[in-house]
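User: Show me a protein chain along with its predicted structure.
Assistant: Here is one chain, sequence first, then structure tokens.
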Amino acid sequence: MSKFLLCFVFFLGCSQLLLSSSFSNSTKLCPHGQTLTLLQLKNSFSVSRSWECDEYGGSYPKTKYWKEGSDCCSWDGVTCHLLTGHVIELDLSCSWLSGTIHSNSTLFLLPHLQSLNLAFNDFSGSSVSARFGRFSSLMHLNLSDSGFSGLISSEISHLSNLVSLDLSWNWGAEFTPHGFDSLVQNLTKLQKLHLLHISISSVFPNSLLNLSSLISLDLSYSGLHGRFPDHEFHIPKLELLFLFGNNDLSGNFPQFSENNSLMKLDFSSTNFSGELLASIGNLKSLQTLDLSFCQFSGSIPTSLENLTQITSLGLQGNDFRGEIPNVFDNLKNLIFLELSRNNFSGQIPPSIGNLTNLHYLDFSYNQLEGVIPSLVNGFSSLSSVVLSHNMLNGTIPSWLYTLPSLVELHLSHNKLTGRIGEFQFHSLERIYLSVNELQGSIPSSIFELVNLTSLYLSSNNLSGVFETSKFEKLKNLNDLDLSNNMLSLTMSAHSNSMLPNIESIDLSKNNISGIFSWNMGNDTLRYLNLSYNSISGFEMLPWSSMKTLDLHSNLLQGSLPTPPTSTFFFSVSHNKLSGEISPLICKASSMEILDLSHNNLGGMLPHWLGNFSKDLFVLNLGRNQFHGTIPQTFLKGNSIKTLDFNNNQLEGLVPQSLIICRGLEVLDLGNNKINDTFPHWLGALPKLQVLILRSNCFHGHIGFSKIKSPFMNLRIIDLAHNDFESDLPEMYLRSLKAIMNVDEGNMTRKYMGNDYYQDSIMVTIKGLELEFVKILNTFTTIDLSSNKFQGEIPECIGDLNFLRGLNLSHNDLRGHIPLSFRNLKMLESLDLSSNKLSGRIPQELTSLTFLAVLNLSQNHLTGFIPQGNQFGTFGNDSYYMNTGLCGFPLSKRCTTAEIPYPSQEIHAKFESGFDWKITLMGYGCGLVIGLSLGCLIFLSGKPEWLVWIIDKNIHKMIVRNKRSTRRRGARRS
């Protein structure tokens, strides 16, 4: 009977369901008021295909077919309650909607909504207003990536039935103060909370860890700060935890219990630190773990082998150390493995070879050594192998040439040897083998890789001849770098049409000679470096898109080639070019660096050189044979940083138009025939660091400047070999703030110039002219030698305590060497020779412990040569022609009268620090020790050790007295 009743009830239920279904299909469920509400909502937006999404299977305008007279419950994106007809779900995600949701929008006239999805539209200017908090039945709210901004109303925390909340990717939206805390405390039913790129700007709330219902939590890039809770992490249902991008959020890696469901964990780009705990092995359901770019340290726990479900492991950018554990036998599901930029050492674990599903492998930027494992099982899906910047040695294993899916191979910056093998498959797109010890020729299989876009083989020992015709199949090649090898080049007649997509070629530092006629990539080539070869000329320079053209250090002859008009870097320095500068160069109006130095170019300097390009910041014409005057006009608002006209035959005056070069850092006019007084107005240039006027015809008094604090950034000054006269320029010396009180520890050491061009200067040290091919920003020197300066050396030079080189030689200076020189603690070279200096060499100069070069020769110095520290390393030539000097290293011995006594300053210090209390204490201690020693002798008789010491010292005193008596007798005779 009971079975019959059950069947009857089931039959009635099914019948009612069928009737209800039939009724719903034949009757309009949607009330007329709701239809009008939805149509008004539709009309408040425009439709524009500017926001697309593929996450939900594509995008389309869902409201397009919403029309009056049809049942709104059948409209796309609308779901109604079966009995009441009320709209309970509205899904307009990816609907191309554009407009603003105001607080009076008809959207808020749908009070029965249980699910609202407006994701991936463009509601720019809208805010998450208080009206959103009045959907009392709402369980699912998704407003992600829809352009909401401004403050998120705290009333959203009134949605107590909310199970899922996603506000992600609304960049300008932010919670009110304490708004996020209220949300966490009130929405206790939340299973999904995604707030990626929403500004929370709060400490991590502990109450979040009490939401036992949470399944997915994403608070990435939300401005969380403070410390993540240290206690055991226990949210049993949590499957996803993303906190990445919160740079100010610190903490240790949580301790996880075995009862967890975590599948995805991402703490990347946070300030988490410490070591990984063994409890990481409890995350047995974990599929994705990303701890990249944090502060983690220590070794990797072997319990990692328990993560048998993991497919993606990212630990790059930390301070993990020790060997990479050999735990990969169990991690057979791994697809992505990234351990780069750590301090791992030892060898690559052999169990790597068992990761048969691996697609991406990156161990770069570590300290791994040894050979690359040779035994692997398959790797049929491996597309990327990145092992660069380690210390790996041996040959490249054969399996790396046989991977059928390999797209990129990065092995650069190691110590790999042997030949490059032949690649068996054509899937490769990027090959990086630079900076190794590979040898032999380039394998022929490389020229069969039709998908290749990047080929970097630089800085190896590759040799042989490669023909340009071999590149015929590499139609997708963008970047080619074969520099710093021993390769030569044979150019075929039909090679100009090859490499139609090439953008960058570096063949520098090879054995390429003769006329260069490989004119590939006429419309695409932007970077060409052929420097340090033996190229003698070009057929043409046809590249219409060229930006960087580096031809320096070759054997180019004849007239100066004209660069393409698009060029912004052009260097032909260190060649054998002759003739004048062609006016066609001025068509390169975007030129930034023009270096024609170290050639045989001549003629008058064109007047347009200073104003043909507003972007020009380096003009180097040094070491040529130009004559005439320096260009007189420069563009207002120009970008010039370096002007180098050194070693030409330029005449006339220094043009005052240089004053508009406000960014000028280096001005080198040395070794010309310029006839002018000191250009004091240059002191107004705020960034001038290097001023070289040596070996010209400058004359007169340097005098004073009307400019307040001139040359404040000047740190390299060379006025040598001119006819300046009168006193040394004390006012200017007092203004050199860049050489005073510099804290080198807080300076970033770098070279003047940029990544590709560095400034260079000639500096005279101990009579030798040395070329500094790069100028370090910590280098400082003053050279005023070979002029007609008179008077005494100013004491203020002692204030230049960051000075490394000082040369005042070959002048007419008199007086003493200033005691203030003892403050020049960084001084490495001091030349005061060929003057008329007198008096003693200050003993205090021995405190200059960096002093490596000293020349005081040909003066009138007298007395004892100081001893100690660096002064013990200087030879006779440092003091030559000072007949009044004595002592080491000279053969002339000093008399008693010439031996130095402590200076008055030392006496003063002694007198001011003398204390009778300390003297009496010493006297008392001496008395006690003396009495004790006397008792010891009396009780022990005649101690042999004491007698031996006394006898030995008496013997030494007798020998000394005999020697001194003989010397005195010899002097009398």
